[in-house]
Amino acid sequence: MKYRTQKIAYWFFASALVLLSLQLVYGFIMGFARVGYDTLHPWIPFNTARAVHTNLLVVWLLCGFMGAAHFIIPEEAERELEWPWLAHAQLISLLVVGVIAIGCYHFNIWEGRKFLEIPRPLDWLVVVNVLAFLANIGVTLWRGTRHTTTSLVLYMGLLFAALLYLPGMLQVDNQTVDSFYRWWVVHLWVEGVWELIMGGILAYLLIKLTGVDREVIEKWLYIIVGLTFLSGILGTGHHYYFIGTPRYWLWIGGIFSALEPLAFLGMAIFAIAMSKKGGRRHPNRIALTWSLGCAVMAFVGAGFLGMAHTLPSVNRFTHGTLVTAMHGHMAFWGAYAMIVLAMIAYALPLLTGRRLWDTPIANWAFWTSNIGMTAMTGALAVAGITQVNLERRIGLDFLAVQKEIEMHFVGFLLAAALFTLGIALYIVHFCRHGLPTDEALSRAEEDLPADWVPVAK
Ligand code: HEM
Ligand code: HEM
Ligand SMILES: [Fe+2]
């Protein structure tokens, strides 16, 4: 940490972890409902829990991205954040809007649109909030002495994410048209502009942790941005197969979405190549482990498991089944949850001045959560494939099939317990750092051992 205002990132990170914990609680409510223990049903029915689970996910990830931006942008731009007070106000208002939205879901006040359940009047508060964030970060970057590719890619990702929120606010009566624009938000976020955010943060972490020259890393970043846009924009078509849009989307969606894994493969190769090139001598090894883990798990969850059901001939059978939930879990985890956790692991010792890198708890947190998530994905895969066979091929009734696959959710819950243990350890490790201090500012540089010399090219 070089700048005092970077400390604000800590509060975004802490909020993200609180919201993540709450997300898991709602995951368990659904998991237990799935195996017959739906005791909370009168107060929190499955559909409410589902909306809360996925919305909390999006909000904690956004909190994590914003925290990352508050840490990265001042350092890359080489100046303090423009309006620190605004950052605090913006975080608090974001949390307030989030809590109001979640409260609404418990009283059945919501839009029936998966992921975009937030009542429309609240959308306007989100818009004001995000504008405040973008202005603060944007002016800091603009007035800064240095404009790096990494910071510009990160900023562009955040800016486009905000712009792409708007199509979701259109009010239309036609179901097909509504769905058409809903995907501009949902798909173009995770398979478009969020990839820029991920790429930007990953590039920053690799520059810091491997010591490889910035030019080399940023050249890769251009390639990844190119691949993302080339495939991801028209790849939206893989959601237009069966919603009432013209037939040509079968071809467009199939071809372009099949290219999407290339961007994730690029990121995995990029991260591994850079860590090999630079060696692993940076003392904060756990942050590098999370960064590499992120690139690899994103490829598996988004690239590989996305490819598994993206062709129209396959999606015809798998659409809207637990195969989708299988892919959704590992993709969100690998790409976006892990990049946020990697960023926190890197920033925390610098913010607090505590050299708690590479402790046993930190390592256990990484492995337990990842093995847990892999097992959860496996359980959902078995349940999903069984569902596809019984329901879509043999033609059994939906509810009869749900009963058949109930037992797979026992395995799923066990895996989720392991995963949750990993997250609990991560949070314990987070808390052991204590609060951010100004003293950490002066100690940040001397924390690096003398033999840590970044390699030249
Ligand atoms: C990190 C990136 C990604 C994330 C976070 C992600 C997450 C998700 C989620 C949550 C859904 C369910 C959406 C809904 O029904 O509202 C979904 C659907 C889908 N994803 Fe991804 N995804 C990612 C990347 C990819 C990639 C690269 C591909 C293709 C290669 C892909 C293929 C699909 C397909 C075909 C569906 C539709 C499933 C259905 O018809 O029910 N995804 N994804
Ligand atoms: C304790 C851990 C967790 C449990 C027990 C859990 C459980 C569940 C359940 C039961 C569903 C509903 C599936 C259905 O429709 O039947 C669900 C949906 C979902 N969860 Fe989780 N979850 C957990 C953690 C996570 C994490 C860490 C993430 C992301 C990083 C995540 C992302 C999602 C997504 C994106 C969906 C919607 C999938 C879709 O659109 O089909 N969950 N979760
Ligand atoms: Fe998509």
Roughly how many Å is the radius of gyration?
22 Å
> Quaternary status of these chains?
single chain
Specify the number of helices: 16
What percentage of amino acids are in beta strands?
A: under 5%
Structural category is mainly alpha
Instruction: Indicate the percent of residues in helices.
Output: over 70%
Characterize the overall form.
globular
Order of helices and strands: HHHHHHHHHHHHHHHH
Which blocks of ≥5 consecutive residues have pLDDT under 50? none
Number of strands: 0
What small molecules are bound in this structure?
Answer: protoporphyrin IX containing FE, fe (ii) ion
Q: Could you tell me the mean pLDDT?
A: 94
Separation of the first and last Cα atoms: 25 Å
What does this structure look like?
The chain is an all-alpha fold and 457 residues long. It has a domain of 147 residues. Helix content is 75%, strand content 0%. The protein is built from 16 helices and no strands. The longest helix has 36 residues. The protein binds protoporphyrin IX containing FE (2 copies) and fe (ii) ion.
